[in-house]
Design goal:
By secondary structure, the protein is mainly alpha-helical. The chain has five helices and three strands, in the order αβαβαβαα.
């Protein structure tokens, strides 16, 4: 989804369409990189069906997948180096959601329920 250069850009121009692709099931997951990760997560989490987490280490990436079933990983390119970013992505991509654990499924179901309460038709 871009951008395909290092020039400054507005995050919504890229994060919004990428988040829609995750929401619609056109892609299974998304990995978004911006300065610190929070801008991308803020935008992505506005889209129904998108569950984005900012991760700055592999431990958090593992928990974001296994406990929260996140489908978008947000990374801060200005605060983590490429080697740790690769480890975070590897962990996040290879960690499965613990769907057989009622503690986590109950929590994720509550988050989905909250999202569904606040869907607005435009």
């Amino acid at each position: 989804f871009g951008p395909f250069s290092e020039e400054g850009c507005d995050l919504p121009d890229f994060i919004y369409p990428a988040s829609l692709a995750v929401s619609k099931g056109e892609v299974d997951r998304g990995i978004f990189i911006d300065g610190v990760g929070y801008g991308s997560a803020l935008i992505a989490n506005k889209i129904y069906g998108v569950y984005a987490a900012v991760c700055q280490d592999p431990f958090c990436a593992g928990l974001a997948r296994s406990h929260s079933n996140t489908n978008v990983l947000c990374l801060g390119g200005k605060i983590i180096g490429s080697a740790i970013a690769q480890e975070i992505v590897k962990t996040w991509m290879t960690t499965e959601y613990l769907s057989d654990n009622p503690r986590y499924t109950k929590r994720v179901d509550k988050v989905i329920e909250i999202a569904e309460k606040h869907i607005k038709n435009i």
